[in-house]
Q: What sequence folds into this?
């Protein structure tokens, strides 16, 4: 493993010891799963809208370069300025140059996973610009100087008590309270002042419509609308896969997104933005910029199988249903995208040297594949990435970086043993005799046995037992 | 940065052309077949929106300005932001009587009006283009006469809904009215007052946008 490799195993075993954290996640995930199931109780409807959603995403991917060009042309015609960034550094530089031109000191942000990918807040702070998260969950996480632990509910790892203490400690005018309505109202008061005075608003994009040059954002709080309407400049950042072909493609995707994400038939607001303030209009930003980010996505797109990763609509349902994520929580992944989608996306974006462990954070139970609203074959991609990690190649950055001679030899020995009846008989007979004698404290065995009892080998092999019953070996 | 543009598009093109992708047909029948009969639509809209704390005020074409005024007076609302240049706005200003909440016109650019908007306005009233039965959503297209912030910044948003302007689905509303031929600066669906569940999944209303949404149904 490379030295920059991120240690999931260590972080997750620490998370597993944290009973508070496990309780917070268990409660939240159980609630989300059962509520989502109610939204999709009508199986025929679920199958229909899911097939439609998947087809919309696949159609968009089938014409991706053309649709991006069309999006650019229509946005430009509408007065939205389009920028392209190959890397997150480049995207940050674009955002910064806009800020510097308008002499921005304060930025309010709506929720955007791409901006997390860019580490935009830290970057702007470094350049003396205050960048304030305005989604309540993101605001909490930012106050706590932490990372979001879920792509839809960033502060899901914390309970009310923890948030109450945080507010008391970090917000000047705060009185200690565990009343959620009062905590929410406090954030409202603090952030309203910021919306009114911010120089720039930054948002993500849930979907960009090529046909009309429209940016679609869904949200419940109104902070997205504030961030995209009040400040004189709006900058939207999006991953290049977020484009859809037609305006009529939007309703099915939104329906799948909001029901899968938070079990709502629709979010409070669906905000469709097609142009900056026009002549005669009294509010809205005078400038809108759209930053289209690649950051490895064009490489993912080149591979027929891995390309399916780009169908994702970022609903988070795969996390809520994942037996690994629901136990270790989001922080163990140390990535902007945790859970199953993170485990397949991060290694492709940041390379297998650094993220090669993540495809192993999976039991291959297929729960994510069953609920993914756009039918991404997550588990197949997981398997593919495991294989890429140990076989040199050029489909994924860092392919082969996790190759281990010892592991390769074990597999080789295993396959030779299984290929020869004689070797197989010998090996099983040997293990039946010696297996129980091996101490539980052997280096590799220990990882298993220090939390579980060591399995006992039977005295006689299955073959031997079968022979006794008169079933001949083939 | 057009260098990046060309590099990205070039890479995407090469990738796609090496492995073209044939997507399955998009069958919109699942949306096309979602239908509700006459009165059912409004009932459903009301039920769904009330479930997320929306309030309803039933009135008529003749009475709505007076009913709105009486409602706001009873709530102790100090003032109401409105668009004076719309038909609805004209009726409000001509039929508003002394002693009720103050009518405040959104007449100038927000730059001259921001402080009052954020600090001194209790309620705002806008028209809608109708509502959607499937999800319980209002369709709102802000205009120069009814700017975007009217339905967002005041603590209470009143939305006028004509009882005959109802659609089955979002998809039906946009396809029948050919939205794709010309989208406005901003188009919105609004399905309740602002809300959040970011603190331990406990629902709280009125986080950044309006704390209350009142649908004024005009029959
Ligand atoms: S992979 Fe599927 S389930 Fe997971 S976030 Fe993306 S769309 Fe949702």
A:
């Amino acid at each position: 493993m490379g030295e920059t490799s991120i240690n999931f195993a260590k972080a997750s075993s620490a998370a597993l010891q944290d009973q508070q954290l496990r309780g917070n996640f268990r409660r939240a995930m159980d609630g989300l799963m059962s509520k989502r199931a109610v939204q999709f109780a009508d199986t025929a409807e679920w199958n229909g809208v899911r097939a439609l959603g998947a087809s919309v995403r696949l159609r968009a991917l089938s014409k991706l370069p053309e649709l991006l060009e069309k999006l650019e042309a229509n946005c430009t015609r509408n007065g939205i300025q389009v920028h392209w960034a190959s890397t997150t550094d480049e995207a940050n530089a674009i955002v910064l140059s806009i800020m510097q031109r308008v002499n921005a000191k304060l930025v309010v942000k709506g929720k955007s996973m791409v901006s997390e990918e860019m580490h935009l807040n830290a970057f702007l702070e470094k350049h003396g610009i205050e960048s304030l998260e305005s989604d309540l969950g993101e605001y909490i996480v930012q106050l706590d100087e932490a990372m979001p632990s879920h792509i839809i509910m960033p502060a899901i790892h914390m309970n009310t008590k923890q948030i109450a203490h945080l507010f008391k400690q970090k917000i000047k005018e705060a009185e200690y309270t565990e009343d959620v309505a009062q905590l929410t109202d406090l954030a409202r008061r603090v952030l309203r002042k910021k919306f009114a005075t911010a120089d720039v608003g930054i948002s993500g994009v849930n979907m960009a419509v090529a046909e009309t040059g429209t940016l679609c954002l869904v949200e419940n709080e109104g902070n997205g609308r504030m961030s995209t309407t009040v400040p004189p400049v709006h900058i939207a950042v999006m991953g290049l896969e977020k484009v859809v072909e037609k305006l009529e493609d939007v309703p099915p995707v939104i329906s799948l997104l909001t029901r899968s994400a938070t079990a709502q038939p629709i979010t409070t607001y669906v905000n469709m933005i097609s142009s900056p303030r026009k002549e005669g209009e009294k509010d809205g930003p005078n400038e809108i910029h759209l930053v289209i980010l690649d950051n490895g996505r064009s490489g993912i797109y080149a591979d027929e199988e891995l390309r399916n990763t780009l169908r994702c609509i970022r609903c988070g349902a795969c996390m809520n249903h994942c037996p690994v994520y629901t136990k270790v929580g989001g922080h163990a992944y140390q990535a902007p995208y945790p859970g199953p989608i993170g485990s397949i996306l991060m290694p492709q974006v940041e390379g297998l040297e650094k993220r090669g462990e993540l495809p192993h954070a999976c039991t291959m139970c297929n729960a994510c594949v069953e609920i993914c609203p756009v039918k991404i074959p997550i588990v197949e991609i997981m398997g593919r990435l495991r294989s890429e990690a140990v076989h040199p190649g050029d489909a994924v950055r860092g392919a082969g970086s996790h190759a281990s001679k010892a592991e390769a030899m074990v597999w080789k020995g295993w396959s030779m043993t299984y290929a020869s009846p004689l070797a197989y008989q010998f090996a099983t007979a040997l293990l039946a005799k010696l297996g129980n004698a091996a101490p539980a404290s052997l280096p590799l065995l220990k990882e298993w046995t220090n939390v579980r009892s060591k399995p006992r080998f039977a005295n006689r092999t299955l073959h031997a037992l079968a022979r006794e019953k008169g079933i001949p070996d083939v | 940065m057009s260098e990046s543009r060309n590099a990205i598009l070039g890479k995407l093109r090469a990738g796609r052309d090496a492995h073209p992708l044939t997507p399955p047909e998009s069958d919109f029948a699942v949306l096309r077949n979602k239908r509700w009969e006459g009165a059912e639509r409004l009932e459903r809209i009301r039920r769904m929106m009330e479930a997320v704390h929306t309030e309803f005020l039933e009135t008529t074409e003749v009475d709505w300005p007076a009913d709105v005024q009486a409602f706001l007076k009873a709530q102790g609302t100090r003032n109401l932001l409105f668009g004076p240049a719309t038909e609805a706005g004209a009726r409000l200003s001509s039929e508003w009587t002394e002693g009720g909440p103050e009518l405040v016109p959104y007449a100038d650019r927000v730059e001259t009006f921001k402080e009052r908007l954020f600090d001194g306005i209790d309620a705002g009233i806008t028209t809608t283009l109708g509502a959607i039965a499937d999800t319980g959503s209002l369709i709102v297209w802000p205009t120069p006469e009814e700017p975007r912030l009217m339905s967002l910044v005041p603590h209470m948003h009143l939305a006028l809904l004509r009882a005959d302007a109802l659609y089955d689905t979002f998809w039906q509303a946009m396809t029948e009215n050919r939205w794709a031929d010309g989208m406005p600066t901003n188009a919105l669906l609004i399905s309740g007052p602002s809300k959040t569940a970011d603190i331990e999944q406990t629902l709280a209303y009125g986080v950044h946008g309006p704390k209350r949404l009142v649908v004024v149904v005009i029959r």
Notes: Chain B has one domain: 36-218.
